[in-house]
Amino acid sequence: MTAVVQPAGTDPLRSESTTTATSTRPAHRLRTRRPFSPGRVLAWTALVLFIAITIAPFLWMLRTALSNNRVLFTEPSSWLPVDFTWGPLERVLGTATSAEAQAEGGSGASLDFWLYLRNSVIVSTVITVGQVFFSALAAYAFARLRWPGRDKVFFLFLTALMVPPIFTLLPNFVLIKNLNLLNTLPGIIAPFLFMTPFAVFFLRQFFLGINREVEEAALIDGAGYLRVFFRIILPMSSAPMATLGILTFINAWNEYFWPQLVGQEEGVRVLTVALGAFRAATPQTGPDWAGLMAASLVAAVPTMLLFLAFGRKIVNSIQFSGVK
Amino acid sequence: MSTAPTDAPRWRSRETAVAYAFLAPALLGFLTFYAWPTLRGLHLSLTDYDLLTAPEFTGLDNYRRLVEDDVFWNSLWVTLQYVVINIGVQTVLAIGLAVLIHRLTRSTVIRGMILLPYLISNVVVAMVWYWMADYNLGILNETLAWAGIDRIGFFGDPDWAIPTIALTNVWRHLGYTALLIFAGLQTINRDVYEAAAIDGAGEVRIFFRITLPLLRPVLALVMILTVIGSWQIFDTVAVTTQGGPVDTTRVIQYYIYDQAFTRFDFGYASAIAVVLFLILAGVALAQLKLMRAGESDQS
């Protein structure tokens, strides 16, 4: 929990953390009161079942990705790889020859994985850095600066939260086309680069909570607003900025609809789009399931790694968005 | 904020200039990719536009066509089915899961595990479930066969396609929704439970008489987030059934996509998008009302 605690006294995350901390003691009391009641056994069984259903598809994906597609049908319900092979992963990573691929039931079509990975990394990173930074600048203007019309403009930003993405999507597609940005990485990035109403709203909440005195002391000492922003506001908000950054990255990484429309061409495909195309290319009769699962697996790995590194932060940030 | 210093004007104007400078990139993004497209979308819905020639104003023609378009009404109906199954199952399971975690454990690892599906893309989720639900080799049908039940064409059978897609997405979002509800549970004072337990109330009674009523504001918020999201189902359909079998999974967003990008009928597609927008706005307003009704329950 300490990971998200902010120095500022009125930080919303802090109140969330302290709630958890104070609830520790009674939770312990509840736990020890009736150690072996049948109800608790039943409850634990239910929870374990939930977790099993959550995890099982991942194991199934892994197991299939390590199977030989040619003989997959011989043991369709075994939890271990059927005729273990690295073949499907090699097909996906492009290290298998097409003869090798076809020998193991691949279509012979390969996936230019490293290219798609590079595109996904570029798109997600640029979107994350741009969106968080520009949204932070705007959030600072909304939270800490006084200017005419501020509340009206902020309200306008908030109403944009209500507009469903599909509604702006068609006109945005037309715009990107008119700007000649179809099938370019900038075209995929542009609509997400500058802000989302959520990011501005999220950061504004934090900036409102930062102690005003430090900021005013710095201003009286002759520091400019830019200096205050970079030297005081940003360092004091590193935790929420990181949280927002991680969530933005995961969303950008998983986005399918928009890059599918704007980035169809081979050279600018991101992983999700490539995966969809790979699925569409597999024969309807006798699909390359092992290859498809290997492709799914490698597409899922980056966000999984991110989760391993920042799991607690992600869990806490999602809970936080619930209390708010 | 209202008490202005004596040299306010000069100070203020400098602050205003700084504010605009800070706001400039976000404002550019807002105007270009939110505000302008919203107006443009409304305009396009009144035109005949194929992307190649200039939009031709046709008034309400697109909307008149909508009223008589059976596929459109079907897409609304199909989407509604999806929303009801998805939200219904997801909410009930998420409440259950959240309560279980709340009462049993404080483990972040467990909370992290239930969140795993949320972190992978819809495309991967769709692919994995498409494989597991395969008619011939899928593990789900293997299990059914093992139990002596007839195989089910999960994605291929008109009766099963929408429930299958809905449940696939329940799997992806369950952990996320449960965590939101769990956060709400944590704000409930434990003393209330202690008192009820001392009074001799059982778990079931505590759940229905205390937990559920106190959760109402959080549930309302969760519903707003999830219902609006689920109306916009697209990725799973695009990867698995592509609208089939015989339009039974042609959800509204997929229909919009279809009209725009396979028929290049952007005007008509925009009109459908306007209708979806209106539906979502209506849903949001209705839910806000309900939420306000629930506010008095706590604090």
Structure report:
The complex is a heterodimer of chains A (324) and B (299). Chain A has 324 residues and is mostly helical. Chain A contains 15 helices and no strands. Chain A has helices at residues 12-33, 38-65, 87-93, 98-103, 113-144, 150-159, 165-178, 185-193, 197-209, 212-220, 225-236, 238-254, 257-262, 271-281, 289-323. In chain A, helix 5 runs parallel beside helix 8 (185-193), helix 10 (212-220) runs antiparallel to helix 11 (225-236) and helix 12 (238-254) runs antiparallel to helix 15. The longest helix of chain A has 35 residues, at 289-323. Chain A is globular. Chain A starts with 11 loop residues before the first helix and ends with a helix. Chain B has twelve helices and two strands. In chain B, helix 3 packs parallel to helix 7 (158-186) and helix 3 packs antiparallel against helix 9. The relative contact order of chain B is 0.13. The chains are: A mainly alpha (324), B mainly alpha (299). Chains A and B meet through helix 1, helix 2, helix 5, helix 6 and helix 7 of A and helix 1, helix 3, helix 4, helix 5 and helix 6 of B.
Essential attributes:
A: 324 residues; mainly alpha; 15 helices; disordered N terminus; B: 299 residues; 12 helices; 74% helix
Biggest interface goes to: A-B, 102 and 106 residues
**Low-pLDDT regions of chain A:** 1-29
The overall pLDDT of chain B, averaged over residues, is 89
Shape of chain A: globular
Strand order of the largest sheet of chain B: 1-2
Along the chain, the helix and strand elements of chain A come as HHHHHHHHHHHHHHH
Oligomer: heterodimer
Low-confidence runs of at least 5 consecutive residues of chain B: 1-5
Number of strands of chain B: 2
* Estimated radius of gyration of chain A: 25 Å
Strand content of chain A: under 5%
- Could you estimate the helical fraction of the residues of chain B in percent? over 70%
Major sheet details of chain A:
none
Cα end-to-end separation of chain B: 28 Å
